[in-house]
Amino acid sequence: MTDVDRALGVRWFEEVWNKGRRAAIAEMLEPDAVFHEGEIDCVGPEGFYPFYDRLTAAFSDFHIEVHDTLAEGDRVCLRWTCNCKHTGDGLGMPATQKTVHVTGMSILRIANSRMVEGWQNWDMLGMLEQIKGSTRSATYVA
Prior knowledge:
Nuclear Transport Factor 2, Chain: A
């Protein structure tokens, strides 16, 4: 993997989310790329657009910061945080104008400097609890 390939994941978050460039999705994803989001798979830019549109209809002022990148073979793993503002009803609930903080990790498989597969894991429950004003506590056992 080259440094250019490794930087593709960082560029994805910067261009697609921070700058809101929907067109960047097709620039960086192969037409048959598969993104795995929980039990849902979306294929290519056309499959990713509904997810992107739903989130941007619910949130604005995205700021995603990539904290770590690890690369091996044709894959890069990114650990990131996202701050955004709940300004729309794209999730089926009225906008609260609350700023939410979300953590996540993404693994991307890259070929020819484009994404061909990706796995997303982020704290959706934490995001919803922040919107609804709930709090949660966790006990971590080592």
